């Protein structure tokens, strides 16, 4: 056993640097030892900090005076890295002592001798272990990259290397699982009895599985099950921690602390914190890397002050070793910055940046964020950002700028955020801070629009709104395109708070539009104007004669809000919006018309919706589109009511035919493949539900010429069984589906029999003949449902001609007039995906 040493004890909560033997002499006889990760029993108040141990009488001769020794060592520790008398590499002069015999102490020469005396390992051996750990981690990452980038061959090579890697490092303890593990005491926890023994047995079963770690990389299931079994067994293990082998602790730490791509470990820090406490309770020493991770886990778990105290005590060991120097000081910067101790965080960052290790200037980002969180220290945050920018030079990335901009926007320091964005766009060539008038290269809606687009795309909607308010206060009117995009993004988020913000901003834009219309009507531009609660004033820092207005609403603004009101069923608000639209002198388009028609239809006012459609198309000359007619057909009672009304259903026949006639005569084209699929389907099913069989046949023939519509076999089966039978997989619908398939099969067989009788060989059919077959089967299906399948074509034709005249497609369906077909064709050949189907 190595001799006892006077070194910093991480297990102590005392802030002084005292050796273990002296602490033992200062404690009462029955004082209980409290590990550094143990939570105090009281609440997280200032009284949680333990009281210093009581002073004891002077010890007998032969031992050094503990109080005097504590004073000397405390002075040495508190000198810190900034002390001018520091002589070590990192600015901290630490002296180590060894008690060789009672009353005799010897000062150790250096850190290496302290490592040998305290840990029992030679410094070269410890360095070799740390190097081996780093090589193992880098090897695993290399194998992951090889699998991703190398394709099939790369994966095979990675598998071969992984097998060799497993043999070398023994991740799965090959040939030592199951009974062999129990014999070697590696992956087995022995000698546990009691009512909760089964939990330890389950944990042993988990540890003995050969497939727990696949290729040295845990899976999501491995991490979840490892914590499941270990957390259940903790209570039993706590009764005899000494029975848990070191290899089991190492294995549990590897699984629960794993952090890598493709592995989900959301509760990683909480599990690490609990595992580290258990290991200290069991007397298992933590490696340097484990101590750092345990400190971070303790901090994240809510014990911030305690974690920082432990970190400060680790300056003697972790902060002076080359292997942990960088990680130690970076952890201190992050924790102190999050805790609000920016002064200590800055000192830690200075220690790191002034050391011989390769500096990472991005360590200043946590400090900048902590300083930017308060307006009082915004100037210091800007100075920290400029220092980082200077150190990074040309290596500073756009992501770094984005992070800095987000920091200042969060704390409402929009001017600093704008300056950071200007630095990114103009390579620090323009300085706008403190200027009353912004340069023209910045003070324009094109430049601000780029910034807003970037913020909205990144999801920083609150920051984008702060930018809108700020630039409007500086006499810059943002483009309506970006502001409308912000409103739409708020609405897409779905949260009640964002929906309210979007509604308020949209109405502010609408009021600005109304003010503009009133001023234009009066033809008298004045310096100040009040309207609808919106102030329009002459800006003090604006150019002479410049009148400042907020961003005015456009047709897109009305469309976004109208769609939201319609989807939320706010019919009254939509009516008010439509009334304001006329006052704003913005002509409604087809989108707005579709939303108001849809809203009336959903509100149970289908007649009013149809009347509004006629008024807007005939009096206001709004050109309808495919969505308009899709909305109109959906407004029919057969599509709205669950229980059919015979009177309304009879009225739907005439209404549907008028809709179809208007749809053919209107000048519009399909704007999306989805509408091209939905509109013909909706037309046919609407007429099928209304039992307008003649209209169905005429509509199918007309849409074949104008829409390039060709029914699919699935559509025929669905029409034979009823709408929705293919989407809902119930037993009843499946029976109807089988019956529908049987009906379509019979009709197809009848069609091919007629072809053979007409002289067709009936063996192979061309693509055109297959399309003709589907159309013929559709018409036969309609006649079958109408009970007129046996009627001669000469008897059916007059009925179809009458319907074609009423639907306005007689020249298209029966005369096949090429001029009329070309005039009313609804396909835009320039749009992809609209080729003949």
From TrEMBL:
Feature: compositional bias, Low complexity: 39-49
Chain spans, region Disordered: 38-66
Top-rank taxon, per record: Eukaryota
Keyword set, alphabetical order: Repeat
InterPro entries according to UniProt: PPR-containing_protein, TPR-like_helical_dom_sf
Name used for this protein in its record: Pentatricopeptide repeat protein
């Amino acid at each position: 056993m190595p001799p006892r040493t006077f070194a910093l004890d991480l297990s102590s909560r005392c802030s002084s640097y005292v050796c273990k033997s002296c602490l033992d002499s200062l404690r009462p006889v029955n004082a209980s030892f409290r590990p550094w990760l143990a939570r105090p029993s009281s609440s997280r108040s200032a009284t949680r900090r333990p009281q210093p141990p009581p002073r004891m009488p002077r010890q007998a001769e032969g031992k050094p005076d503990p109080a005097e020794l504590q004073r000397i060592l405390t002075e040495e520790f508190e000198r810190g890295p900034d002390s001018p008398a520091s002589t070590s590499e990192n600015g901290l002069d630490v002296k180590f002592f060894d008690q060789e015999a009672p009353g005799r102490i010897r000062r150790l020469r250096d850190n290496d001798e302290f490592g040998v005396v305290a840990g029992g390992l030679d410094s070269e051996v410890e360095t070799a272990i740390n190097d081996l750990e780093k090589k193992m981690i880098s090897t695993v990452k290399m194998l992951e990259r090889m699998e991703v980038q190398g394709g099939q061959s790369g994966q095979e090579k990675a598998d071969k290397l992984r097998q060799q890697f497993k043999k070398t490092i023994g991740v799965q303890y090959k040939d030592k699982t199951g009974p062999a593990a129990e014999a070697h005491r590696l992956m087995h926890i022995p000698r546990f009895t009691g009512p909760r023994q089964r939990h330890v047995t389950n944990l042993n079963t988990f540890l003995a599985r050969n497939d727990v770690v696949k290729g040295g990389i845990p899976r999501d299931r491995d991490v979840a099950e490892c914590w499941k079994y270990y957390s259940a067994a903790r209570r039993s293990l706590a009764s005899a921690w000494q029975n848990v082998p070191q290899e089991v602790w190492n294995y549990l730490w590897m699984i629960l602390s794993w952090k890598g791509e493709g592995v989900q470990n959301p509760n990683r820090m909480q599990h690490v914190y609990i595992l580290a406490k258990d290991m200290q309770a069991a007397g298992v020493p933590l490696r340097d890397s484990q101590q750092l991770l345990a400190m971070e886990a303790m901090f994240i778990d809510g014990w911030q002050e305690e974690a920082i105290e432990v970190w400060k005590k680790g300056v003697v060991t972790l902060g002076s070793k080359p292997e942990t120097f960088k990680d130690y000081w970076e952890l201190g910067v992050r924790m102190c910055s999050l805790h609000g101790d920016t002064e200590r965080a800055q000192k830690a960052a200075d220690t790191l940046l002034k050391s011989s290790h390769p500096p990472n200037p991005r360590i200043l980002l946590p400090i900048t964020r902590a300083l930017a969180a308060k307006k009082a220290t915004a100037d210091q945050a800007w100075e920290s950002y400029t220092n980082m920018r200077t150190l990074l030079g040309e290596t500073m990335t756009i992501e770094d700028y984005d992070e800095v901009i987000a920091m200042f926007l969060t704390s409402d320091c929009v001017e600093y955020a704008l300056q950071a964005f200007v630095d990114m766009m103009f390579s620090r060539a323009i300085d706008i801070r403190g200027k009353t008038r912004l340069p023209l290269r910045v003070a324009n809606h094109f430049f601000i629009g780029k910034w807003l687009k970037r913020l909205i795309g990144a999801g920083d909607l609150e920051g984008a709104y702060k930018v809108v308010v700020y630039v409007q206060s500086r006499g810059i009117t943002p483009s309506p395109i970006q502001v409308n995009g912000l409103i739409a993004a708020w609405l897409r988020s779905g949260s009640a708070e964002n929906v309210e913000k979007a509604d308020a901003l949209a109405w502010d834009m609408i009021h600005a539009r109304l003010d503009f219309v009133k001023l234009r009507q009066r033809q008298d531009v004045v310096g100040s104007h009040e309207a609808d609660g919106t102030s329009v004033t002459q800006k003090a820092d604006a150019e002479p004669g410049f009148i400042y207005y907020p961003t005015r609403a456009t047709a897109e603004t009305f469309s976004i809000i109208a769609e939201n009101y319609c989807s939320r069923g706010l019919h009254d608000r939509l009516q008010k919006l439509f009334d304001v639209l006329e006052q704003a002198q913005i002509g409604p388009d087809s989108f707005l018309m579709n939303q108001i028609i849809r809203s009336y239809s959903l509100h149970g006012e289908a007649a009013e919706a149809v009347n509004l459609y006629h008024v807007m198309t005939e009096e206001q000359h709004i050109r309808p589109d495919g969505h308009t007619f899709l909305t109109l057909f959906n407004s029919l009672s057969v599509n709205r009511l669950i229980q059919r009304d015979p009177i309304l259903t009879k009225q739907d026949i005439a209404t549907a035919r008028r809709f179809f006639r208007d749809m053919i005569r209107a000048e519009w084209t399909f704007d999306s493949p989805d509408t091209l699929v939905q509109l013909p389907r909706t037309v046919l099913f609407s007429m099928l539900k209304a039992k307008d069989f003649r209209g169905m046949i005429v509509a199918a023939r007309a849409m074949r010429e104008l829409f390039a519509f060709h029914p699919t076999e699935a559509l025929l089966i669905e029409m034979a069984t009823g709408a929705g039978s293919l989407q809902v997989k119930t037993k009843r619908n499946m029976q109807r589906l089988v019956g529908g398939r049987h009906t379509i099969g019979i009709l197809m067989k009848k069609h091919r029999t007629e072809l053979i009788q007409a002289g067709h060989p009936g063996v192979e059919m061309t693509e055109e003949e297959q399309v003709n077959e589907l159309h013929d089967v559709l018409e036969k299906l309609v006649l079958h449902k109408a009970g007129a399948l046996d009627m001669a074509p000469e008897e059916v034709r007059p009925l179809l001609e009458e319907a074609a005249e009423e639907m306005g497609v007689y020249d298209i369906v029966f005369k096949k007039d090429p001029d009329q077909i070309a005039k009313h064709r609804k396909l835009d050949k320039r749009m992809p995906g609209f080729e003949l189907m």
